[in-house]
Amino acid sequence: MRSKVISGFISTDGYVAYSVFDDAEKHPGIVHIGCWVHARRKFIDALQSDRRAIEIINMIAELFKLELAFKVQKLTPDQIKVRRERRSKTILSKETYDKRQLLPCYFDDILDHVEINGIGVPTLPPTLNAIYLFVHIYHHFLKEGIALRQFIDWMMFFEAKRKEIVLPELTAKLDKLGLLSAFKAFGALLTEVLGMDAACFPYSLTESDKRYVDKIMTIVLRYGNFGKYGRKEQQGGWKHSVETGMRAVRHITQFFWLSPAENLLWIPKLTIRSIIKNRH
Fold first, then answer.
1. Which one, of 16, 56, 12, lies nearest residue 34 by Cα?
2. Cα distance between residue 77 and residue 175, in whole Å
3. Is 195 left (phi over 0), alpha (psi -120 to 50) or beta?
4. Which SS3 state, helix, strand or coil, does residue 115 take?
5. Contact 243, 233 (CB under 8 A)
6. Which residues, 6+ apart, have CB-to-CB distance to 234 below 8 Å?
7. What confidence tier does 175 reach under pLDDT thresholds 50, 70, 90?
8. Is 33 helix (H, G, I), strand (E, B) or coil?
9. Cα 195 to Cα 246: distance, rounded to the nearest angstrom
10. DSSP string of 117-149, one letter each residue
11. Tens of pLDDT along 15-60?
12. Rounded CA separation 85/224 (Å)
């Protein structure tokens, strides 16, 4: 279906590809909205270095409590809409903090800015962006599958920003996350399959790093973008969730030693998500 015939609200994360929906002339019927869950993660990550982030985290928590209360009360969608508009406005207008001062100051502290057609656009610093792009690929890969498009985005980033990446900081953060081996293994696909110059990647890759390339490519080609292909169940529901879970178990088992701690957490995390998603 062409996007021009779609109207209504589209909720997305911060992936740059979704910014196309911000163009009111091309998509007059679409209102592009963000996601509080994705926004909250950024403030959680920043909490160690900037305690001011707790103000926003607490505000978002109050919004989540509202949504939980609406579910417990078993309100209709229309009733939820009325209450959400009224009560969330109260939360967002609280004077316990000055949002106009806090938010710009907070983002100015952690974000870089690039100029595109004369407009300053906020973006993550290159070192953090290298990790963010990888984690996005890796999580979708483990859960269901991923396409080459995301790898190409990652490759183009390295080609453009390799000189700005701070290697000691990158290594320290990946070590802390337990993702350094996975980062290298997936990076090997950029050089071995997509033809990126090895000098663009932050690390020198060994044969050990490259041994997963064929296995990764097999899954990329088999399941496609976000696991669209090879499914028996295309519609949501328990069967769809079980199929996704079984696929995730296979991927986690196959790539377990790339990130043992991360992979151990994935099964309970996916199970809890499925229960919450399908309990109604």
1. 12
2. 45
3. left
4. strand
5. yes
6. 240
7. very high
8. strand
9. 32
10. TTEEEEE--HHHHHHHHHHHHHHHHHHT---HH
11. 667 777 777 777 777 887 878 888 888 888 887 777 777 888 888 8
12. 39
Q: 261: which 2 tokens?
A: 């701690």
For 140, the token pair is: 């979708």
pLDDT, tens digit (0-9, with 9 covering 90-100), for 185-211: 999 999 999 999 999 999 999 999 999
Q: Which amino acid, 122?
A: P
Beta-carbon contacts of residue 204 (< 8 Å; ≥ 6 apart): 198
8-11 vs 30-33, strand pairing mode: parallel
The pTM score is: 0.59
Q: Which two tokens stand for residue 203?
A: 């690390």
Distance CA 263, CA 241 (A): 18
Pairing relationship of beta strands 112-116 and 8-11 according to DSSP bridges: unpaired
Token pair listed for 237? 């529901």
210 burial level (CB within 10 Å; 0-12, 13-18, 19+): middle
3-state secondary structure 57-114: HHHHHHHHHHHHHHHHCCCCHHHHHHHHHHHHHHHHCCCCCCHHHHHHHHHHHHCEEE
Distances in Å between the Cα of 148 and the Cα atoms of 82, 135, 213, 219 are 43, 15, 13, 11
**Which pair of tokens denotes residue 262?**
């991360």
